[in-house]
Model the fold of this input.
Amino acid sequence: MSNPLEAIAGVPNAAQPLPRLVTGGQPSAAHFEALQRAGVEVVLDIRDPMEPRPFDEPALVERLGMEYVNVPVTGGTLDDQTMTRILDVLRTNAARSVLVHCASGNRVGGPLIAHLLLDHGADQDDAIQTAMRSGLRGADILQWGLDYVEQHRG
Done:
């Protein structure tokens, strides 16, 4: 069995920012099969369900015995409610291996920053660098993550 990062080799911006968390762009059907063999248990898809896909991802993921969760991140959903839903999925599955993906890895960056800062005590610069290595490119996504942390840091 390969590890989850090896399982998503070739996926745009594939990364493993935490031992039980892999991130990236859109995996292929073969990637999902490899992820299942590598022990990934939860797929958190943050693409809008209306975005075009070459296959029925929810059906494939569920057929493979993994849990499929969709929390759409779009220009109109960069809000606290969406971030809280994503972080809730990551927090409730902390003991499981999780894949978080969008189309390119960019949208993964905001939630990754918030997760690293709020739940793992990361340094802000390190969290931003990790998110950028994971595909973050949009200033709006970066700011969304930082704003959420500012408002929710205890």
